C-alpha cells in the first residue's frame, strides 16, 4: 500500500462503526432477531460477531506491533456465535465495544511509523500476516457487516411483503364492508 492508500484505508476503518450503527438503526425491533436462512446470522448476531471480531483484531494488531514473530490464532466464528449465545446477549454493549475498540486503535494507526507497516507474524489459517494486511482486512470488515445487516433487512421486508399485503387487503375489505352498512342478506 502507498501512504495515500493507507490513509484511505485508515479513514474507512475509522468510519466503520458509524456505518454499522447506521445500518442497525434502520432495523425495526421485530427484525433484529430474524434470520434470513438456517445457519445465517440475524442483525443482532452480526453486531455480536463484530464485537468479538473487533476485539480480536484490536489485540492482533498489538501483537504484530509489539511481539517478535507472533502467532495469530484463528477462530471458528460460527462456533463462537453458538457457544457464546450471540442471540441471547445484549446488543448495546456489543455495539459500544465495536465503537470503543476502533476509537482506541485509530490513533495508533494514524501515528504508526513507516517501519511498523511491515511488521508481521504468522496466522494459523492465513499464513504470513502483516500490519498492512491486517489493515486491508479490517478496513472493510464493518462495511461488509453493515451490508449484511442491510441485506437481512431487505430480505425480512420481502418475506413480510406478501403476508403484510394480505393483512392490509383484509383490513380494507372489512372496512369497506362496515362502510356499506347492514347486510342485505335475509336473516333467519
Structure description:
By secondary structure, the protein is mainly alpha-helical. It has one domain (3-179): dinb family like domain (Four Helix Bundle (Hemerythrin (Met), subunit A)), CATH 1.20.120. The chain contains six helices and three strands; from the N terminus they run ααβααββαα. Strands 1-2-3 form a three-stranded mixed sheet. It starts with a helix and ends in a 9-residue tail after the last helix.
| Unreliable residue stretches | 179-188
CATH class: Mainly Alpha
| CATH homologous superfamily designation | dinb family like domain
Provide the β-strand percentage band: 5-15%
Radius of gyration: 24 Å
Across the major sheet, the strand order is 1-2-3
Instruction: Spell the H/E element sequence.
Output: HHEHHEEHH
Tertiary shape: elongated
Please give the CATH architecture.
Up-down Bundle
Mean pLDDT across every amino acid position:
89
Helix content: 55-70%
Count of helical stretches: 6
CATH topology: Four Helix Bundle (Hemerythrin (Met), subunit A)
Cα end-to-end separation: 86 Å
Number of domains: 1
Number-wise, the strands total 3
Structural class, please?
mainly alpha
Largest sheet entry? 3 strands, mixed
